[in-house]
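seq as requested:
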Amino acid sequence: MPRRETRRLRSVHKVAGGALLAMLVVTIAGVLTWRDDIFQTIQDPRQPFQTYEPPAAPDYASAESWLSQPDLTTDPFELEEKGDVFVVVPSVYRGGEHYNLPSDDLRRKSKLQRIVRPNYVTPYGDAGRLFAPYYRQASLYSYMTQREDARLAQDFAYQDVRRAFEVFLTQSPPERPIVLVGHNQGAAHVTRLLHDFFAGDAALRGRLAVAYVIDYPVPLDLFDEALAPLVPCETATDTGCIAAFGTFMPGESANAERFSERLLVHDGEAFGSVSGRPLLCINPLTWSRAEDYAPERLHKGGVAAEGLEPDIRPAAQPNQVGAQCLDGLLFVDKPRSRSLRRPLKVGGKFRTLPSNLFYEDLKQNAVARVDALATSGTLPKRAARLDSLELEEIAVSPVTPATDKPPTATFSDTEKR
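struct tokens:
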């Protein structure tokens, strides 16, 4: 082949290669720019919720419907003097075919057991018996849009949580403190439990050690109406209060904007946008609402506990982050340990982390609040069991039988006359 022709072909190949590279760069840039929209489109079930056939309901009378449940055969008089903890777990189902997670989805159940239970349920075990129901949680897609279908899916998930909580109340003696915990989607459902069960029931409210509402917004105006009898926590040992925060690491401004502008909160009557509403933020390093920066030396420890068995307590990694509440959001430093950072995955900003940044802080605080309520003297006292009482023998007294004769009437001399 002549040299001139060879040079021309090489030039053509270079142009084609350059064009292909440019197209690839543009494609990658487009994917990065619209990755959330692409992720959302993939997860859309593409049918109205009204025509959607929901998965079968869990049976909370069965142990198989609980991710965590204590031994209910234990004699109530032999229970440890701790509390009872009800945990509503975070999202693990992205969506696609269903609006709500099927009860028989073994893949997601495995994820709940491997990732969610050791990171988001086990930390509270020192505070009391652990109850964590499986429920037909709404898909991640349902929290990425404000469509009516998404609201229906979220409400559908809450009805499972409500039924599970009603069963929990039948199994929790009235003298035991209650700790409510919700992470992510679970936190949204805990806010509704607070309205539906605690706001109007003084006795149940008196049993509430604390409600942790984590990584889901709690507008402060809820305390004016829907949650009026409840209050935000102000110190590390307050009881009957709500501790809420949403955590954001450096570079997560899009997450922060979505959290404070796009999510929906139920006020007991209907869903409403959080946009423009001041949010509650409790700094878990100080357990106060102060907006001062709390240094990393106050951080008791995060844990990446994926795959651990329920009875294994992992060693926490302390002094990983400082934290500061600003405009209702909790901003933290980049964790020193890579295992506590958000993984780089498609849709990663929406996924439940395989770690708990404030594992040890929550663990110790839950114990402190349960102890504070248990020693306050305000909880009901359990009646002593009969076999522990000293019974006195009662002597039999003779009974004088009644006669059939009417009593003899007597009259004074005046009456006779």
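The longest strand covers residues 208-214.
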